Amino acid sequence: MSQFPLSFEFFPPKTPEGTVKLRAVRQALYAAGPEFCSVTYGAGGSTQDGTFGAVREIQAEGVSAASHFSCIGATRDTVRGQLAMLKGMGVRRLVALRGDLPSGYGAGGEFQYASDLVAFIRAETGQDFHIEVAAYPEVHPQARSPQADLNAYAAKVRAGADSAITQYFFNADAYFRFVDDSRRLGLTVPVVPGIMPIISSTQLMRFSDACGAEIPRWVRLRLQDFGDDTASIKAFGLDVVADLCARLRAGGAPGMHFYTMNQSVAPLAILQRLGWMG
Fold first, then answer.
1. 6-274: CATH, from 3.40.50.300, 3.20.20.220, 3.30.1330.30, 3.30.565.10
2. What is d(CA 93, CA 132) in angstroms, rounded to the nearest whole number?
3. Which of 54, 170, 190, 221 is the most buried (most CB within 10 A)?
4. Mean pLDDT calculated for residue range 106-132
5. CA-angle at 11, arms to 10 and 17, nearest 5°
6. Quick one: which of 134, 159, 153 has its CA closest to 40?
7. pLDDT one-digit tens code per residue, 146-201
C-alpha cells in the first residue's frame, strides 16, 4: 500500500469491451497500492447491476472495494437488501449519496437526503461499514447558500459518516477553507480531496459546467489556447494537477481520491511525478 493513502474511482462499463479494458486499468493502478477503489452509481440507481458487478470483481482481485450507494427512489427494504448483499460480498466501505434524479423522474423513495441514508445504514448495520459522504469545497450547485451547503454536510457527518470525499476542484484554498469551516462546526472526520486529472479540455469543461466545479480562468484560457494539441493539454494538465496535489498534501490533506474516468495513464503520471508510487 502507498505510504500516503490513495484511492481510485471507476464507473461501471456499459460494454463487454469496456469491462475488459477496465480490468487492465485496475491492474495498472493497483501498482500504486490504493487503500480502496470505488465504483459509481448511475442516476436513480440505473447502473446498480454494473456497479455491484465491478465491486465484486475488485474484491475478488484482493483490493478493498467501496460501492457508491444512492438513495433517490430507494425504499428501506431495497436498501436493507442491498446492504445485506454487499456485506455478504465482503464489502466494508460505502460512499453514501443522495444521488441524481434520472431525467423525467419525479421525487420518490423513502429518503430525501443523504443524511437520511447515512442514519439508516448506521441504524441497520452498526459499525459494519465505513461510510464516506460527499463534500463540496466550492458549494453544491443546488445549494441555497454556502452556509446551507455546509449545514447539509454537517448533517451527514452527524448522522454517522466516517469520512468525506470532495468534488474535484483546482483551487486548493477552497479546500482548506472548507476544512477550516467544518472544523469550526466541530466536525473532525477526514476530508479527502477528490482529484480530476486533466486529459481532455472539452470533457473537463463539460463535466465542470454540470457539477459546479470551477476551472480557474488562467487554466481555462491555457486549455483553450492549446486547441486540439492533445499532448500539450496532457502535459499542462499534469503540471497543474501534480502541483495541486503537492500543495494539498503539504497543507495536511489526509489522502487523495482520483476520479480516473476508467483510465490509468494520467493518474499514474501524476503519482510518479510526485514520487507517491508504492
1. 3.20.20.220
2. 7
3. 54
4. 89
5. 100
6. 134
7. 999 999 999 999 999 999 999 999 999 999 999 999 999 999 999 999 999 999 99
Decide: pTM greater than 0.85.
yes
β-bridge mates for residue 39, sequence order? 10, 67
Residue 139: half-sphere exposure toward Cβ, Cα within 13 Å:
9
Angle between helix 48-60 and helix 16-30 axes, rounded to 10 deg: 40
Could you give the percent of the chain with pLDDT greater than 70? Answer: 93
Domain extents in the chain: 6-274
**Residue 133 is inside which H or E element, if any?**
strand 130-135
The grid cell for 184 is: 469550526
Report the alpha-carbon distance of residue 108 to residue 133 in Å, rounded. Answer: 21
Helix (H, G, I), strand (E, B) or coil at 129: coil
Catalytic residues: 9
Of 24, 29, 22, 40, which is closest to residue 6 (Cα–Cα)?
29
Note the pLDDT of residue 110. Answer: 82
Whether 123 has a pLDDT exceeding 80, the answer reads yes
